[in-house]
Amino acid sequence: MTLRIKNLGSGSSGNATVVEAQSGHTRSRVLIDCGLRVSELKKRLQSCDLNLVDLNAVFVTHEHSDHWGHALALCRQVGIPLWSSAGTRHAVELAGAELADLDWCQARDGVAIDLGDLQLMPFTVPHDAREPLQLCCTDGDRRLGVVTDLGHVSAHVVRALQGVHGLVLETNHDLERLRLSAYPPFLKKRISSDLGHLSNSQSADLLTRLMHPGLSMVLAAHLSERNNTPELVRAAICPVLGCAPADLPVADPAHGSAWCGV
Ligand SMILES: [Zn+2]
Ligand SMILES: [Zn+2]
User: Global pTM?
Assistant: First the structure.
């Protein structure tokens, strides 16, 4: 059995991540979030020898356009189920989206989703969306946590991620850079609020609480292009992991990441 992950693009310009579990001759793949145009998604999948039809399902974490953006177009084109919370569905319907023709499935906090070789366990996170969920994914052996839009580290999140072997970890901004940036005050306030995004030091704190000898892969993700740099992320996260800066992969908006085994 193997569990691995590849980010295809990360940050406010569009998020998409493939998680794949393989056992014997069968494989299951879920796309977490679809903030990339379908044509662009297809191009990025092809760069790792995958096609749209190789995806078995899409899980959308919340309605913000960098996550939900092109999920409907993808599901219509490929004919695969779309999983989200009822709150996320409600939010996009209020914004005018029509989901009646889709194979939409309701995801709930703490209720496992079986997708062949892959099992997803959604959990509620604090973020300024209607009912945001993030995920733990497992192939029955290894566990991977994926958390990208998180206003603060809640006890529920720490519990849900306890014991993971791999982690996609939001490292959104450097607090000092955000403070000094040209962003308008309301936006600075939103980003740094309890329902916004994790700063590098908050991410380091979450990681500290999840460290155990079996945690072997961390991928930093959802960096602000203006208020963060891979160097600042590595300076905050590598001391927690005890690794050299070059050993921490950081997902990039245009290229995502390489495949990371869990
Ligand atoms: Zn968001
Ligand atoms: Zn986001």
Answer: 0.97
